[in-house]
Specification:
alpha/beta, 3 domains, four-stranded parallel β-sheet, two-stranded parallel ribbon
Length: 322
């Protein structure tokens, strides 16, 4: 038996891997039937254990001065890296990935994170370092696996993509879409919420209302109406009033269209802003997001009587910081 304490000291990471490979593969050393014990704080030694059954990892975690928790035969995973103090930024990858359905969701969340940090006088999180966005495109989420690690089998093509192989810390935000709980999508959402409470490195939220745009405060929804009509009716449009609850459960294209009908704004004075699905056409979704991020609204303006948006933003900030 050979005992070595922290062999990574003064040893280049590349040489650490060569050292382990030599111990595992050199014919002469193999013939000696040696067994090696290392104590280490180096994550580079973990690489070899992924593909070699001759390596075992024992995780030691101090609970208090006289008590340690020892876990035997652990697999390299997020928890082991946390104990070692290794972040994704150690290899220049963002620490957290934020999964959103599309580009406007990304713009809103990026802006809101900035406003929240200023409002709380907290550290301003940096995109591509503290977090990075991944756009998954709506129903494509069903092709990703978030719960258990799939078995590696080169002969069989996996039915789903292991999301935690893409990023080991994921915040997933999905449009609510007025999803019914007993539908296939509703059951999938329930499973993601359950998983979110079980795992430290995965959090799931939906937008509570139809889409992320439905979370915007009334002031913005009202002020944006002048972008939907032609010149000559701007003043009349700005006199229109409504309640926030009027638009939270309906797609914004349908909401604006009905509202303009109710206030007798002629069809020929409106722009083509409504998509066939009832939401805003993509060009107008982008215009709305740009309207929001260039506005002078502060964080307090966004969350007034808006506990749903407040909960999402504050949970996201805390998840990234943790």
């Amino acid at each position: 038996m050979v005992f070595i304490e922290e062999p990574e000291i003064n040893l280049h990471p590349g040489l650490q891997r060569i050292f382990i490979r030599t111990l595992l593969n050199n014919d002469y050393l193999q013939s000696k039937n040696l067994r090696y014990f290392f104590t280490t704080h180096s994550n580079h030694f973990l690489d070899s254990s992924i593909v070699n059954d001759d390596v075992s990892i024992f995780q030691f975690e101090e609970l208090n001065k006289n008590k340690f928790f020892v876990k035997a035969n652990v697999k390299p995973e997020r928890k082991v890296l946390d104990v070692l103090g290794v972040n994704n930024t150690s290899v220049f990858l963002a620490n957290t990935s934020i999964w959103v359905e599309g580009p406007t969701d990304r713009k809103y969340l990026s802006k809101l994170l900035k406003l929240y940090s200023e409002f709380k006088n907290e550290q301003n999180l940096k995109e591509d370092i503290d977090f990075a966005f991944f756009e998954y495109g709506g129903n494509l989420i069903e092709h990703y696996l978030f719960d258990k690690q799939p078995e590696v089998n080169d002969e069989v093509v996996r039915s789903k993509i292991n999301s935690l192989a893409l990023s080991n810390k994921i915040f997933l935000l999905a449009d609510n879409d007025n999803t019914k709980g007993n539908s296939a999508k509703g059951r999938r959402r329930k499973a993601l919420y359950t998983l979110s409470h079980e795992r430290e490195n995965f959090t799931f939220f939906d937008t509570a209302f139809v889409e992320i745009e439905n979370l915007l405060p009334k002031r913005i929804i009202k002020d944006f109406m002048k972008e939907l009509v032609k010149t000559g009716v701007h003043e009349k449009v700005m006199e229109i009033d409504f309640k926030r609850s009027d638009y939270t459960k309906i797609r914004l294209g349908n909401f604006y269209d009905k509202l303009l009908d109710d206030y007798s704004i002629p069809k020929n004075k409106r722009k083509s802003f409504k998509a066939s699905s009832g939401t805003l056409m993509n060009d107008y979704k982008i215009k709305l997001s740009n309207f929001v991020i260039t506005s002078d609204n502060g964080y307090a303006d966004f969350i007034v009587e808006n506990k749903e948006l407040k909960q999402i933003v504050e949970a996201l900030y805390a998840f990234i910081k943790e």
